Amino acid sequence: MAAAPRGQEAAAWSEEAARLVWGGAVPLQVHLHDADVTALPPPPPFLTLGPRIGYFPLLVSTIKAHFSSSLPPGVDTVWFEYKGLPLKWYIPIGVLFDLLCADPERPWNLTVHFRGYPADILSPCEGEDSVKWNYNNSLKEAAFIITGNSKNVMNMSQADQLAMWESVRKGMLPRNNLSV
């Protein structure tokens, strides 16, 4: 059997790496903070997979739906914590997990708060548009660090930018081959 040419082998490795990165997830067990519980018995924790390339604010609607019958009325200021440490919403879930869990726990036990946002510690998240803006800026910054400029990101078509963001939002590999 003949060996595959080097270019094909590299392409196969690259495709496999992309699949693993985009498909990676962290199992999460999310508990509602005791101060936010308004029903007895307290609700069970919410179990989900957090895409490693995803962001906590993108999970809020699903998590809120799970805890909705136990939440107090009023305006939500959702934030997450791990062992008392407020988690920065603008850092991807996988990065936070890798940084904070020297001995990875699975599932990763987090607490969600719907009140008492620690504005003195965390910058506010104004919703999905804030997350998208942050992601795009991080992408430009990473491209600049790697290549010395961010032209490859800045020159992406609107359709490719949207496809990339939708892939991050949904936690899945982009359908077309975007190269940044």
Task: Describe the sheet with the most strands.
Answer: 5 strands, mixed
Whole-Å distance between the termini?
Answer: 35 Å
Provide mean pLDDT, rounded: 87
Shape: globular
Q: What is the gyration radius calculated from CA atoms?
A: 19 Å
Poorly predicted ranges: 176-180
* Largest sheet, spatial ordering of strands: 2-1-5-3-4
Q: How large a portion of the residues is in β-strands, by DSSP E?
A: 5-15%
CATH topology of the largest domain: Ubiquitin-like (UB roll)
CATH class of the largest domain: Alpha Beta
CATH architecture of the largest domain: Roll
- Secondary structure: helix percent: 25-40%
Tell me the domain tally.
2
Molecular structure report:
One of its GO terms (molecular function) is Atg8-family ligase activity. It comes from Triticum urartu. The protein has 180 residues and is an alpha+beta fold. The protein has 2 domains: 22-113, Roll (Ubiquitin-like (UB roll)); 126-180. 39% of the residues lie in helices and 14% in strands. It has helices spanning 6-23, 60-67, 93-100, 128-147, 151-154, 158-170; strands at residues 25-32, 46-51, 79-82, 85-86, 108-113.
Present the secondary structure layout:
Blueprint (H helix, E strand, L loop, with lengths): L5 H18 L1 E8 L13 E6 L8 H8 L11 E4 L2 E2 L6 H8 L7 E6 L14 H20 L3 H4 L3 H13 L10
Parallel strand pairs: 1-5
Antiparallel strand pairs: 1-2, 3-4, 3-5
GO cellular component, one term: autophagosome
GO biological process, one term: piecemeal microautophagy of the nucleus
Protein name: Autophagy protein 5
